[in-house]
Amino acid sequence: MFICQDLEQVYNALDEMIPFEGPVRNVNKNKALERFRKATNVVYDIFNNGLGNKGKSLKVLGLKKYELPLEEYRGGELLMRANWERITEIVTPIYEKILLEAVKEQGIQCELIPNTQTGKLDLVPCQTS
Known about the structure:
The protein has 129 residues and is of the alpha+beta class. The chain has one domain. 38% of the residues lie in helices and 17% in strands. Helix 2 runs antiparallel to helix 3. The protein is globular and about 50 Å long.
């Protein structure tokens, strides 16, 4: 995963519920999971394509394109380099909230486990209900 490494195992549990293509099953009952799916696609596009493909989908994160310090070009010339550290600071808390809403909706029981490598706490799924 590209951001939220401390939530990687929970992300993986949710990712298993996402179809390879298209919306999740029963979107009306799985609204948070569908939002997670859309947000994941947008976050991937931000960090892998500089939001080149999913600019209009950015609304799932509640952001506008001008709020992210992405690379800017005019006439084929680079005017401003992207500030990836700042983009990560902006996107991470929003994405974490969307991910955790999907965890709650899907009934994934979690626990906090100390990560010996990072010294931080990781949110790890126990089971799904």
